Every structure is written in structure tokens, then in C-alpha cells.
Amino acid sequence: MSKKHKHEEQKPENITEQAATENEQKIAQNENVDTVVSQEEQTDEQNPAPDVKPQSDPIAEINAQLAEMKDKYLRLSAEFDNYRKRTFKEKAELLKYAAEDMLKDLLPVIDDMDRALKAIDTANDLGSVKEGISLIVSKFNDFLKAKGVKEIDAIGKELDTDLHEAITKIPVQNDEQKGKIVDVIQKGYLLHDKVMRFSKVVVGE
Q1: Chain-centre distance of CA 174, in angstroms?
Q2: Are residue 154 and residue 143 in the same domain, yes or no?
Q3: pLDDT tens across 12-29, in order?
Q4: How far apart are CA 203 and CA 172, in angstroms?
Q5: What's 172's domain CATH number?
Q6: How far apart are CA 67 and CA 76, in angstroms?
């Protein structure tokens, strides 16, 4: 048999082997694809996609916020109204009883006046009565000083319209008394630095 004939007889076997090899390669590729797909599926199972929250209704949210703000406003308004009423009541009571402490300190002076009036009815010594009244006046003046009340100086002072009220003028012989206060008709008083009552005075001219 010639070489050419032998070669032609072996050719079909080579083709068959080549086809088998290609089939094996395709099968291997398919197996690789299946492996990759399987790995991707496992990855998806291990890392599931995050849940997508449903979108909220903006109008409902605004209505909820509005209702909350309205509730806070009503509560605040009620609290302020209660505070206003309570403060008004406390202020009224404070004004009503503001002079309580001062009047309480004045009671001993009133007691002395009552005792002096009783003593006058039975007293034979006018000097002792006068002395008793002087003590009461002195005690009352001390009470006024303790409360910040003091008499406005007037006699011999220059007329000060911030402190004095000139009732009339009288002629004077001494030039030093001209323009000055020579008599007091009614005493004036200061409460600390504020004028409670102006002194009513007579001015020399």
C-alpha cells in the first residue's frame, strides 16, 4: 500500500479525535460558566439587596408636624394664662399688705399715745404730761427715720423749688434773710431721696 493511501486512511481518525477534543473543551467551558453563575447566586444569597422603603407621603408628614405644633402652642398658651393669673393675684396681695410691716412697727407708738391720753385725764402735773408727749413724738420720729423718712430743712435756707413751696412773702429788716425762708407753715418730708411732701414756707423780701 502506498504512503498516500495510508495517509488517507488515517485522516478520519484524526478528525474524530479533534472533534472529541473540541467537545471536551465546550463541556469544560460550560462547567466553568455554571460554576461562575453558581458563585454569583451564592454571593447574592449572602448579600441580599437592601429593602427599599416605601416613599412617605409629604402631605401626611406636614399635617403631623402641624398638629404637633398646634398642640405645643395650646399647651404654652394655657401655661402662660395660668402664670399671668397667678402673677396678678400675687401682685394684688403684695399691694394690699405692702404696709403691714411698717404699720406693725407703728403700733407701739399708738400704744404710747393711748396711755398719754389716759394720763392727761388724771394728771395734776402739766410738766410730766408735756414730757410724756415729747417722748412719744421723739419715738415717732425715730420710727420715721428707720423707714427712710426725714424732714426737709427749711428755716434759714435759700428757697429751693425742688423742695419748698413758697406760700407768701413778708418784708424783713435783716438783709441776710431776704430771699430765704423765715417761717414754715407745713413741714415737708423726704422718703430717702424722693419728696413725699413739699415744705410750705414763707420767704423774706
Answers
A1: 63
A2: no
A3: 445 455 555 665 666 555
A4: 9
A5: 2.30.22.10
A6: 14
